[in-house]
Design a protein that fits this description.
There is one protein chain. The chain is of the alpha/beta class. Helices cover about 25% and strands about 25% of the residues. Strands 1, 3, 4, 6, 7, 8, 9, 10, 11, 12 and 13 form an eleven-stranded mixed beta sheet that branches. A four-stranded antiparallel beta sheet has the order 14-15-20-19, with no helix packed on it. The chain has a four-stranded antiparallel beta sheet with strand order 18-17-21-23. The two termini are about 45 Å apart.
């Protein structure tokens, strides 16, 4: 496994009540006794990265853990685009063949839903990144870890994968985090409606399952192929849409384990199918980040996330991207803009290398303190001037540029807030936007569509985030 450098090493477990336990690691031994419930916990002194080391836990029996590295541990979470495997992505065969990084380790937390926070989770054993293990790792997390290790002096990197495709943000928050914010009460109202509708949903599922069984029997008799089995909806009791259900089972058990930070790729479910939609996302997502930080007790650890890519989905995707951009108001956060590397026809774009790279750039700046440009241009303010709007940006790097030709993707509106396509002209760190059809523009927006045609970048090659200057 990989333990977090620079923080106290936390080791805990179970024994017989009152049993004496001694934990030894890097020449240090800490002793304790199991409590009445049989639980014990010790902290050992923090240290620098390195290894391999051996850790010994001695009580009535002795357990020795070998080949332990000390480095940086990251939690990789979210839904299916974080779960997307290396073998599914671009250049998969070549990438897998080259995956020989013994100091990058990963473990996978098994899917589970729980009504209350759990103190343990089912996890796969830690494995080093080799072709046979990397193939099934999260592609985003793999490329993120590989880039960090190469740029941070070969430090060991540990990835804890905890994700579930198709899940909303409220499943990954604690009930406390949802309940403490009155603005999030629609989450409970939406869940109550889902439970009310569940008998009909379950009945429809059983009909599909019965039809599938009939088809399976016929195909088996005829020697045909089996059709895909219908998946059980997750919107009912015990399903993955349960508010706090995934936090309880797949995040809470991890929180005693010291980490460097978290990477996150999620939002599609809230923008698409979830009854609460994108409107609550900014509040919920920010609440989730605060919730995780509070649970780990490590202060404002780095939290880096992916903004939704371009995809022909529905009109709510721009609003969700805006909620993600607004979340940058929280300390020690970073956002990978992916508006240029999605697939309009596939919600799971296969270019995960650039996603991992952009997250790693954010990590190098936010988590490791490097002085580099790590984000594309981000909207700062828009001012009216002489029949147009001047838009100012953060993260312009060495300057702004239009990739591939004339600047595209801007719109303006007057007092009626009816937006029309506009022309943009780059002037230093700003863009002047005008439209002949709007003599006195008051508002401006950019990339405001589910699959926008937009091409503003900084000279570091990072795309601008979509935005609007009006709610």
């Amino acid at each position: 496994m990989v333990l977090q450098r620079g923080l106290p090493v936390h080791i805990w477990g179970k024994a017989q009540p009152g049993e004496a336990v001694a934990v030894s690691f890097r020449g240090e031994t800490q002793q304790t006794k199991a409590g009445d419930g049989g639980r014990w916990s010790v902290y050992l002194a923090p240290g620098e990265g390195g290894g391999p080391f051996e850790l010994t836990v001695k009580g009535a029996n002795t357990i020795a853990f070998k080949d332990i590295l000390v480095g940086d541990v990251w939690v990789a979470s979210g839904q299916s685009n974080m779960e997307f495997k290396l073998r599914q992505g671009d250049h998969a065969e070549a990438e897998i063949a080259a995956a020989r990084y013994p100091k990058i380790r990963r473990t996978l937390i098994s899917r589970k839903v729980a009504d209350f926070p759990q103190d343990d989770a089912v996890a796969q054993p830690w494995v080093a990144m080799e072709p046979e293990t990397a193939a099934n790792s999260s592609a985003v997390a793999y490329f993120f870890a590989r880039h960090l290790q190469q740029k941070e002096g070969g430090v060991p990197i540990g990835i804890i994968e905890s994700f579930w495709g198709g899940t909303p943000v409220e499943s990954w928050m604690s009930l406390h985090a949802i309940g403490e914010d009155a603005a999030l009460m629609p989450i409970f109202a939406g869940w109550a409606k889902s439970l009310d509708a569940w008998p009909a949903v379950e009945a429809q599922y059983q009909k599909r399952l019965e039809s599938w069984n009939d088809t399976m029997a016929k195909n088996k008799a005829a020697g045909g192929q089996a059709p895909p089995k219908p998946g059980r909806p997750e919107t009912g009791p015990g399903g993955a849409y349960t508010p706090a259900g995934l936090y309880n089972a797949m995040i809470a058990p991890l929180t005693p384990y010291p980490i460097k930070g978290a990477i996150w790729y999620q939002g599609e479910s809230n923008a698409n199918a979830n009854p609460n939609g994108a409107s609550l996302y900014a509040r919920a997502f920010q609440g989730m980040i605060r919730d995780w930080r509070r649970a780990w007790g490590e202060g404002d650890f780095p939290f880096l996330y992916v903004q939704l890519a371009n995809y022909r989905a529905n009109p709510s995707w721009p609003e969700l991207r805006e909620a993600q951009r607004e979340t940058l108001s929280l300390a020690n956060t970073g956002m990978a803009v992916t508006i240029d590397i999605g697939n309009p026809a596939n919600i799971h774009p296969t270019n995960k290398q650039d996603v991992g790279l952009r997250l790693a750039l954010a990590a190098r700046a936010v988590a490791y303190g490097e002085k580099l440009e790590y984000s594309g241009p981000l909207f700062r303010q828009a001012l009216r001037e002489a029949g147009g709007m001047r838009v100012w940006f953060e993260h312009t790097g060495g300057g702004l540029t239009a990739k591939g030709g004339a600047l595209k993707g801007f719109e303006v509106a007057g007092a009626d807030r009816k937006f029309v396509p506009a022309e943009g002209r780059i002037e230093g760190g700003s863009v002047v936007v005008t439209a002949g059809a709007v003599a006195a523009p008051m508002y401006v927006r950019y990339g405001w569509a589910d699959n926008p045609d937009c091409n503003l970048y900084n000279t570091d090659g990072l795309p601008a985030s979509p935005f609007r200057s009006v709610d």
